Amino acid sequence: MSDQRPITILCLASEYKGVPFIEECARQGARIILLTTEKHGSDPWPWDAIYRHYNMPDLHAQPNITHAVSYLARENDIDRIVALDDYDVATAAALREHLRLPGLGETQVRYFRDKLGMRIQAASHGIRVPAFTSVFNYDQLRDYMTHIEPPWVLKPRFEAGAVGIRKLHDSEGVWRALDELGDEQSYYLLEQFVPGDVYHVDALLWDSEPVFAVSSRYGAPPLSVTQGGGIFNTRLLPHDSDEFQATTDMATDVFRAFYLERGVTHTEFIRAHHDGRFYFLETAARVGGAHIDRMVEAATGINLWQEAARIELATARGEAYSLPDHRADYAGLIICLAREQWPDLSAYDDPEIVWRVPRENHAGLLIASADPERVAQLLEGYNERFARDFLIHTPYKKAARTTF
User: What whole-number percentage of the chain has pLDDT above 70?
Assistant: First the structure.
């Protein structure tokens, strides 16, 4: 790469997100080419920070996306490809392979998109995972169901979060579900359902080590909220707590096992009710959704999107990365589907409220405080009030893709 021209980054965005990433790259003199879907082509992107902009009907349809990006490369010397949405991570890896660009390739990216790949890799490095099996060989599947007690969850390997997961209570239910899936069944795995509390670690990595990591605990597990309706909430854990230490240590083990050198991650664990131990659930090489980035910034001052851009540019330039000074406060989020198009939250006036979710048919608040107990207290009270004031008891289903 010539030192005489700006770094050019192609951003894939099948959803409207990652604006701080784009703005930071432009602030540092990089050229951003934004490739997004027609659905989001007219969203309020930071147009002044974007060098070129293109829309496509679908960013995942092959060979269309490869043809389109290869065409762009005729007149644009692309240095990096960055996925702004979880569903773009695998596409970005395939394009890097095709154009022979640095970054996660198709094999490694499986650890961050393929739930079966995650479990096999984690288990092979001694990281605890719920008992699971692939859905390839029926004899192995029968053996699994004989020896592993139900209930089980049938999980799509390439969906994000809790989307598409089915809870099954007996072998007959499994076989019926597989019959319905037909030729698609190999894109699923079967896993023992483990009741417990779900945690997430949001981290920045440099030279294979986390230079920043915070741990948080969800209120209700995302699977329960996604499939049964309810209230989503999460809050940062005290830094001196055993839960914080256990989850951040385990996340570091995951990063090493998955050979992730640099970037931003969102990793989830469950603390099983039956034995109190933590089990790895999944990880993603991206900024966490559901406004978790805002929660982290409210507590620490660290904008994960902005730092992801700084890491990307430092890597491209062969420079060192240093984390900026930051706070060690606390924050929490609460969100639910609401009966009203624009719910009235004016009665929620505590001084700790720092942001309100600006989305139709959603009630949501972000709170921040130097006191973790104050955050926990407010969330507990808001949970009861949201159930009374706003909650519509409808499963999130596909809305879970972008919200939860």
Answer: 94
The sheet carrying 231-236 orders its strands as 278-284, 263-272, 196-206, 209-218, 231-236, 330-337, 362-369, 353-356
Write down which residue in 192, 227, 242 finishes a domain.
192
Give the contacts of 342 (CB within 8 A, at least 6 positions apart): 360
CATH code: domain of residue 220: 3.30.470.20
Same domain membership, residue 288 and residue 169: no
- Residue-wise pLDDT for 343-352, tens only, equals 999 999 999 9
User: Is 1 within the bounds of a domain?
Assistant: no
**134: part of which helix (H) or strand (E)?**
strand 132-134
Tokens of 278: 């933590």
Same domain membership, residue 16 and residue 57: yes
Catalogue the long-range contacts made by 26-34 (C-beta closer than 8 Å, 24 or more residues apart).
Answer: 26/50, 28/309, 28/310, 28/313, 30/6, 30/313, 31/6, 31/7, 33/8, 33/9, 33/72, 33/76, 33/78
Full-model pTM? 0.92
Q: What is the mean pLDDT of the chain?
A: 93
What's at 344, amino acid-wise? D
